[in-house]
């Protein structure tokens, strides 16, 4: 089966018909070629079969793409090889996206791909808990993350970057609700409000979208140094 046939089938099977267009299929085919080529010398992903890439990377990210407000500035914390930032930038050109990761060599792929595919996506190398004390504190409409850390830790890395009135969007697996229970205190301390939880299935995988509004400014002592966050999560 060709890449495009697989792309249309997987998106249609997962209720993502609005992204099943010829134009997006071509863009994702190009991204796949670039990802597989770069992945042969820098480890970006363990998933290398195109059908699995479509399902586990592209469809997974496209399933949350419409949760982002029109024209939002978005920070993707721990973007790694560009997930969700690359699929979001392809499917939602109205967004202005920044991918942040502590591993600079992965960002070379994200930065080069964004330039060569003319995407509204740039990158920043560094640790979230350090950069959140800098000039980008409380400056993004949305801060998102996928497969980076447990929600209580993730909130301390992400919520300080969210502007008042904005939100954090965490892409979680089937245990998202339990993670949210464990993160209640962190959310309250860091200035978050009541979370909106959406559970859904992607093929046979349970997924959870956790959207946390930013209702108060984050106290200046957060995020704490990484050792403290890990040793004593909020
Ligand atoms: N989000 C991508 C995805 O879904 O494929 C990558 C997930 S990967 C498992 C986790 C990434 O988070 C790694 O690339 C790692 O370098 C990055 N990371 C972990 N802790 C971080 C921190 N404190 N600040 C910035 N990046 C971090």
Task: Give a verbal description of the structure.
41% of the residues lie in helices and 21% in strands. With 234 residues, the protein is α/β, with parallel strands linked by helices. It has a seven-stranded mixed β-sheet, with helices on both faces. A hairpin with a 2-residue loop joins strand 6 and strand 7. Helix 1 crosses helix 3. The protein is globular, with a radius of gyration of 17 Å. The model has no long low-confidence stretch (mean pLDDT 97). The structure holds S-adenosylmethionine (SAM). The site of S-adenosylmethionine has 17 residues, from strand 2 and helix 6.
- Please, what is the average pLDDT? 97
The count of strands amounts to 7
Relative strand content: 15-25%
User: What kind of sheet is the major sheet?
Assistant: 7 strands, mixed
| Global shape | globular
Report the radius of gyration as a whole number of Å: 17 Å
Distinct bound molecules: S-adenosylmethionine
Keywords:
234 residues; alpha/beta; seven-stranded mixed β-sheet; 41% helix; binds S-adenosylmethionine
Walk me through the topology.
Blueprint: H1 3-13, H2 22-39, H3 50-65, E1 73-77, H4 85-91, E2 96-101, H5 104-116, E3 121-125, H6 128-131, E4 140-146, H7 151-158, E5 162-172, H8 176-182, H9 184-189, E6 196-202, E7 205-213, H10 226-231
Parallel strand pairs: 1-2, 1-4, 2-3, 4-5
Antiparallel strand pairs: 5-7, 6-7
Helix pairs in contact: 1-2, 1-3, 2-4, 3-4
Bound molecules: S-adenosylmethionine.
């Amino acid at each position: 089966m060709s890449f495009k046939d697989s792309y249309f089938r997987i998106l249609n099977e997962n209720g993502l018909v609005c992204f099943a267009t010829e134009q997006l299929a071509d863009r994702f085919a190009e991204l796949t070629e670039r990802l597989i080529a770069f992945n042969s010398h820098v480890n970006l992903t363990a998933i290398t079969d195109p059908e699995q890439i479509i399902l586990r990377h592209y469809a997974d990210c496209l399933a949350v793409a419409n949760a982002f407000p029109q024209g939002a500035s978005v920070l993707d914390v721990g973007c790694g090889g560009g997930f969700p930032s690359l699929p979001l930038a392809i499917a939602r050109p109205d967004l202005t996206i920044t991918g942040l990761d502590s591993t600079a060599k992965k960002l070379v792929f994200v930065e080069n791909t964004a330039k060569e595919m003319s995407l509204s996506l740039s990158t920043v190398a560094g640790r979230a808990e350090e950069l959140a004390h800098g000039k980008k504190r409380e400056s993004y409409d949305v801060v998102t993350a996928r497969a980076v850390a447990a929600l209580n830790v993730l909130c301390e890395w992400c919520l300080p970057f969210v502007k008042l009135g904005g939100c954090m969007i965490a892409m979680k697996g089937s245990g998202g609700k339990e993670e949210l229970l464990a993160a209640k205190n962190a959310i309250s301390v860091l200035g978050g409000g009541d979370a909106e939880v959406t559970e859904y299935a992607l093929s046979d995988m349970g997924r959870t979208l956790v959207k946390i509004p930013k209702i108060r400014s984050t106290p200046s002592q957060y995020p704490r140094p990484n050792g403290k966050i890990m040793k004593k999560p909020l």
